[in-house]
């Protein structure tokens, strides 16, 4: 009996350790399941934001469907432009987008060679193409005659998403490269 008591105690201790480890393993597994669900949710949200961004450039911008801009932009969006100025709100942003279509009505974006999403952020490189085929208004009723020259320009947009719309956007492209391509700069 003396030998069986230590053996029994040892067996009980092993059982207790095993039960504790099993409970901890179950808790760890549940924690990992929650983390995996969060990661899946984030990845799905990132995928939707990138799809929304593709639609923004390929359909809304290219087609000048300004009434659909609210599908991807918050009504009070802050937009930062390459020259350093900013606008606030969809109407002001639209007014900044329209002039390109006056002198290059065939302006379009049909590809995003680089698309990155991380949580509430996206960074997308687009290729803007068009032809300087109409006079370019420069103010006070003056225009620059069309040169007929085409342009192909890479641009990058960084967007901060709040839910399903961007609340802040940074647009970057090389204005000097654009002017050179359309024949207005050396």
From TrEMBL:
InterPro entries in the cross-refs: Cyclase_SnoaL-like, NTF2-like_dom_sf
Superkingdom classification of source: Bacteria
A family per Pfam: SnoaL
Keywords for this protein: Signal
GO biological process: polyketide metabolic process
Coiled coil: none
Signal peptide (from-to): 1-23
Protein name: Ester cyclase
Gene source species: Undibacterium jejuense
